């Protein structure tokens, strides 16, 4: 059962997540952090950078793995996740770029690049804390509905709905790549702690299906129910379709001090 924390605003939820991640890095400077892209975690990264500047958090031994990447964008394309992670995470936090990993979506053989990424994650000892967003269709990473809940890092085809959702980052939907490399659902479930962020009414149905619906490949986010340590940080609109909301609010007031 996930811990569900409902905050009034995305900023408050992101700040809470950032404080927790900063404290985790302070306790364990060689942490392996999994990062998501998209709009949702952007404030968390800014907040983490602010805490680093204010408290002098040592991030020199932090290792980062991204969840996914488009296939076929040229290296250096501003909307490639390699560039997004470089801007929002590596540069913002002042990380050593050699410790920041993104699947190689411009590789001549993306299938081999996917396998190699999975091996690289394994060699690093796996992800300790994974930040996740969720797609309006319930995807995590780029694992679209129908993805095997045991899947590993691989090449996937993006759904029209995901390409349409991400068209805001490109000039038009047809410029959004049709393929990606994504960590599998099984790969994501191997992380020690999953921190899901979801904000806005557009995520409400996906959040309810993921946290309270049946566990099914039709909603890849529902695989979170199979993980022993999940924290979901939501704003009010994203929590609106949860049936057990009252319980979560009660549970939050009873939480021990060591949780988020
Ligand atoms: C994107 C990413 C996911 C992200 C999700 C939600 O396409 N591949 O990692 O969590 O879709 O995106 P957003 O946060 O912009 O709503």
Structural write-up:
By secondary structure, the chain is α/β, with parallel strands linked by helices. It is 34% helix and 16% strand. It has helices at 10-27, 42-55, 81-93, 110-123, 160-165, 185-189, 204-212, 245-253; strands spanning 3-7, 32-35, 63-66, 68-70, 100-101, 129-132, 154-157, 179-182, 193-198, 230-235. A seven-stranded parallel beta sheet has the order 1-10-9-6-2-3-5. A three-stranded antiparallel beta sheet has the order 4-8-7, covered by helices on one side. Residues 36-40, 67-68, 133-135, 141-142, 162, 166 line the site of 2-amino-2-deoxy-6-O-phosphono-alpha-D-glucopyranose.
Record the SSE blueprint.
Layout: E1 3-7, H1 10-27, E2 32-35, H2 42-55, E3 63-66, E4 68-70, H3 81-93, E5 100-101, H4 110-123, E6 129-132, E7 154-157, H5 160-165, E8 179-182, H6 185-189, E9 193-198, H7 204-212, E10 230-235, H8 245-253
Parallel strand pairs: 1-10, 2-3, 2-6, 3-5, 6-9, 9-10
Antiparallel strand pairs: 4-8, 7-8
Helix pairs in contact: 1-2, 2-3
Bound molecules: 2-amino-2-deoxy-6-O-phosphono-alpha-D-glucopyranose (GLP).
InterPro entries: Glc/Gal-6P_isomerase, Glucosamine6P_isomerase, Glucosamine6P_isomerase_CS, NagB/RpiA_transferase-like
Catalytic activity: alpha-D-glucosamine 6-phosphate + H2O = beta-D-fructose 6-phosphate + NH4(+)
EC number: 3.5.99.6
């Amino acid at each position: 059962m996930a811990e569900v924390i409902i905050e009034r605003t995305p900023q408050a939820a992101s700040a809470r997540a950032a404080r927790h991640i900063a404290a985790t890095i302070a306790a364990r400077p060689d942490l392996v952090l999994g990062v998501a892209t998209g709009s949702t975690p952007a404030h968390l990264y800014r907040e983490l950078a602010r805490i680093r500047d204010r408290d002098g958090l040592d991030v020199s031994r932090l290792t980062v793995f991204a969840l996914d990447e488009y296939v076929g964008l040229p290296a250096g394309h501003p909307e490639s996740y390699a560039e997004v992670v470089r801007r929002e995470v590596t540069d913002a936090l002042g990380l050593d770029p050699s410790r920041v990993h993104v699947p190689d979506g411009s590789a001549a053989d993306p299938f081999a690049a996917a396998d190699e990424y999975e091996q690289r994650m394994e060699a690093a000892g796996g992800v300790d804390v994974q930040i996740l967003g969720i797609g309006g269709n319930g995807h995590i990473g780029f694992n679209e509905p129908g993805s095997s809940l045991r899947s590993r890092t691989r090449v996937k085809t993006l759904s029209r709905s995901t390409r349409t959702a991400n068209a805001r980052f490109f000039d038009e939907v047809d410029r959004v790549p049709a393929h990606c490399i994504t960590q599998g659902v099984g790969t994501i479930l191997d992380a020690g702690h999953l921190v899901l962020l979801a904000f806005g009414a557009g995520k409400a149905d996906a959040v309810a299906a993921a946290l309270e619906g049946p566990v099914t490949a039709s909603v890849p986010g529902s695989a979170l129910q199979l993980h022993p340590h999940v924290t979901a940080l939501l704003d009010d609109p994203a929590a609106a379709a949860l049936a057990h909301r009252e319980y979560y609010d009660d549970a939050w007031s009873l939480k021990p001090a060591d949780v988020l």
